[in-house]
Structure prediction request, 348 residues.
Amino acid sequence: MEELIKKIQQDAEKKISEIKDIKELQELKVKILGKKSELSEALKNLKDLSQEERPKIGALVNTARTKLEEKITEMEEKFARKNLEEKLEKEAIDITLPSKKIRRGSEHPLNRVIEEIEDLFTSMGYDVVEGPELETDEFCFERLNLPEGHPARDMQDSFYITDKYLLRTQTSAVQARTMVANEEKSPIRIITLGKTYRREDDATHSHQFNQIEGLVIDRKETKISLADLKGTLEVFMRKMLGDKTELRFRPSYFPFTEPSYEVDVTCFKCGGKGCSLCKQTGWIEVLGSGMVHPNVLKMNGYDPDKYAGFAFGTGIDRLAMFKYGITDMRYLYTNDIKFLKQFDRMDK
Prediction:
């Protein structure tokens, strides 16, 4: 029995050394170490041996199996190294060859406009404030003088998540949060920028769009007036649309300001002469503005007899369209490389 085990081991080692590829090795592994191998049969026959021989023969079988497993592992590693070397040689990269040109766009036009706005207003002493996009009905409407059932709510077709939570329809909610958080009643001079959501989708509207809103509040002794609002907006619009831009204020209605004004700018295409873009009027509407409504001050912790201020807001997407001559708002959200790569050139 002892000679038989040695012969099985020697024959198996010889066959392992003659193997040419990993597939043959795996097949041989099953034959010499599997359940039906000669070594496995030898273990099954231990019951026919005497008690003195069983431990000795069992140890020989286990030793032979261990050595064969080691031989097979060595061959597996050898074939693995060989395959890797062949693969590396086959897939070798010539690093001296010129690389493929990577297509790239440029900084997104919305980000360009946002950074330009932030730079302008921070230079004027404003703080940039952010707020949640998932907003409560209280801050999105009620604290802005839009109680439940108010008809002006119908102007904003909203995305409600629950009865009290919705995707904000305007960044004005951040103004209310800023007033509530300002317990010291120190002067407020902020802008807030970010995404807003309404159920709209056409060439000049999108279900998601970006807004900027500004808010200035101080004690009445400082005599904040419409003149301050007008001066601020003139600086803002001329920075964004050109030094020759003129503004026109038209009385309007917004629940959170009183008096309220729509602000038009001279058409950037025709310079106010009249064209198809401005429908021959020479003006394009861009902003909503006004003095902060006394009810809004009161609901957010300010005494309207002691405090006053102004607010304004506009769509960043529309400013980008005007600034760069973009004809369809939806282009801003397609991430088309052909569309995006032109803006580096435009700002030079």
